[in-house]
């Protein structure tokens, strides 16, 4: 068995990004003694488990929360995508961008490449997936053209700045303000418009869609319903495998994500939510506030770790709720819906990070070049949450919100996430410009992103603002071509 020092060295050699819940390098190097024949099957199984948790979080919790918040706040699909979806899917990437731009040499270029590659993945592959699931479906002409056009203008402006090899503070501020202007325009166009009225009048339809979303990601049921006679053995095996981890996954998610419907009220789960949610939120901010930070609490001159203080306070609140609350609430609580949205975002972000780290470990074990891992694994890991959330919305009968989120989410990442990080960096060197590192792979990502956006705008407009199914296949083919070209460039520039 390898020594602890060797295991720690192996762990640091595997990853340059924040640590995961599981140390996949230690699993390979220490627990399994570096035997790829054992590591690859185990990591592949963990990969499937992470994806299943991610899918369950999106379909059973994130989709209903977005639908209910959009209905209660009377948000149009465009406004819901520009605010709820963009914030939920883009917040983790915003922190990652800030960390990358403030990192050592080479990290700023990697951060920019990750944002662009993730945007290309969502605008092509995720849009293609939504099209294949829900097409043909109509999109509102003005909001659709506005969303794609603004993303196109934002990407073009950033491309121009990148080609100049430097960015000033006013340009970085302009990126953030441009998204604020976009949200303001969405609000102005939707205020009292037909789209907002349609959302207000379809609250019952949204609630019905939530039930669809709860089973949309259940693969064995879907396969068995559509092909019961062709693959009976495969369906049985898939159902048995799914049942092994389906209940534990659902149980853990119920413990940490509150249910918003009075009919699903359960005192045990509510008390568990009150106890565990604050701890998980504290963990999500552990990079800014370490869990062992000591503070004075109740007893003077005695410092307790912050996690113990939060645990004590949440336990007291949970016990009070258990003793005082006797019956379920009569109506749906907006605060519970908001907390459900936040906690489902936490699980989507956390599991996406686990997928990223697990994929990176598999890539290193199989001796993939770091450049290729960066152009593929990093982009996919940062975008899988967006993909699963948008696909879950499309399956739940909300393709308009899903397709709007495919543009608003990456634009949020580019303008607010990357823009905020650039504001910080340009402010440090003000009045001088912040130098941008040039790389041909980033230029290719820019060109592909612009082409995919222009193609989607032209094709959907030509189809009279209906998303055709064939365009989904075209977008996926274009992304595969982009991936091949990016890998070739990364391999040649090693």
From TrEMBL:
Q: Give the domain of life.
A: Eukaryota
**Keyword tags:** Antiport, Ion transport, Membrane, Sodium, Sodium transport, Transmembrane, Transmembrane helix, Transport
Predominant location category: membrane
Q: Where in the cell is it found?
A: Membrane
Gene Ontology biological process terms in this record: sodium ion transport
**Occurrences of domain Sodium/calcium exchanger membrane region (ranges):** 44-187, 338-487
Entry's Gene Ontology molecular function annotations: antiporter activity
Annotated Gene Ontology cellular components are: membrane
What Pfam families does this protein map onto? Na_Ca_ex
Membrane topology note: Multi-pass membrane protein
PANTHER family assigned? CATION_CALCIUM EXCHANGER 5 (PTHR12266:SF33), NA+/CA2+ K+ INDEPENDENT EXCHANGER (PTHR12266)
| Protein family | Belongs to the Ca(2+):cation antiporter (CaCA) (TC 2.A.19) family. Cation/calcium exchanger (CCX) subfamily.
- Name-wise, this protein is Sodium/calcium exchanger membrane region domain-containing protein
The scientific name of the source species is Urochloa decumbens
């Amino acid at each position: 068995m390898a020594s602890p020092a060797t295991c720690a060295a192996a762990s640091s050699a595997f990853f340059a990004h924040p640590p995961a819940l599981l140390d996949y390098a230690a699993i390979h190097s220490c627990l399994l003694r570096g035997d790829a024949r054992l590591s690859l099957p185990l990591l592949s199984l963990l990969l499937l488990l992470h994806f299943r948790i991610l899918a369950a979080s999106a379909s059973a919790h994130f989709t209903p929360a977005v639908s209910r918040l959009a209905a209660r706040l009377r948000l149009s699909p465009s406004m819901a995508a520009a605010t709820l979806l963009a914030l939920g899917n883009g917040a983790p990437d915003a922190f990652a961008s800030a960390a990358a731009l403030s990192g050592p040499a080479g990290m700023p270029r990697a951060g920019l490449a990750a944002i662009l590659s993730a945007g290309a993945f969502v605008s092509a592959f995720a849009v293609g997936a939504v099209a294949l699931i829900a097409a043909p479906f109509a999109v509102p002409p003005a909001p659709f053209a506005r969303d794609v056009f603004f993303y196109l203008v934002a990407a073009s402006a950033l491309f121009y700045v990148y080609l100049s090899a430097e960015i000033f503070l006013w340009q970085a501020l302009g990126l953030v303000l441009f998204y604020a202007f976009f949200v303001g325009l969405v609000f102005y166009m939707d205020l009292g418009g037909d789209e907002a009225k349609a959302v207000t009048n379809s609250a019952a339809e949204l609630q019905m869609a939530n039930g669809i979303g709860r089973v949309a990601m259940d693969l064995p049921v879907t396969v068995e319903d559509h092909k019961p006679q062709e693959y009976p053995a495969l369906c049985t095996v898939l159902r048995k495998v799914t049942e092994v981890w389906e209940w534990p996954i659902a149980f853990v998610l119920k413990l940490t994500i509150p249910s918003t419907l009075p009919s699903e009220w359960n005192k045990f789960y509510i008390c568990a939510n009150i106890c565990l949610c604050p701890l998980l939120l504290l963990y999500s901010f552990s990079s800014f506030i370490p869990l062992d930070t000591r503070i004075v609490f109740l007893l003077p001159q005695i410092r307790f770790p912050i996690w113990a203080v939060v645990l004590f306070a949440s336990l007291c609140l949970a016990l009070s709720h258990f003793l005082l609350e006797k019956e379920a609430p009569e109506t749906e609580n907006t605060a519970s819906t908001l907390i459900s949205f936040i906690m489902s975002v936490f699980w989507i972000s956390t599991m996406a990070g686990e997928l990223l780290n697990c994929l990176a470990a598999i890539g290193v074990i199989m001796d993939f070049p770091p450049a290729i891992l960066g152009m593929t694994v990093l982009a996919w890991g940062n975008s899988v949450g967006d993909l699963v959330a948008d696909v879950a919305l499309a399956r739940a009968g909300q393709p308009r919100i899903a397709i709007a989120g495919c543009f608003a989410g990456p634009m949020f990442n580019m303008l607010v996430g990357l823009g905020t990080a650039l504001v910080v960096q340009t402010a440090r060197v003000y009045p001088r410009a912040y130098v941008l590192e040039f790389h041909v792979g980033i230029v290719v990502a820019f060109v592909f992103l612009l082409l995919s956006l222009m193609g989607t705008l032209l094709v959907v407009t030509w189809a009279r603002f209906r998303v055709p199914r064939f365009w989904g296949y075209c977008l996926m083919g274009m992304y595969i071509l982009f991936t091949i070209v990016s890998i070739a460039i990364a391999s040649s520039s090693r």
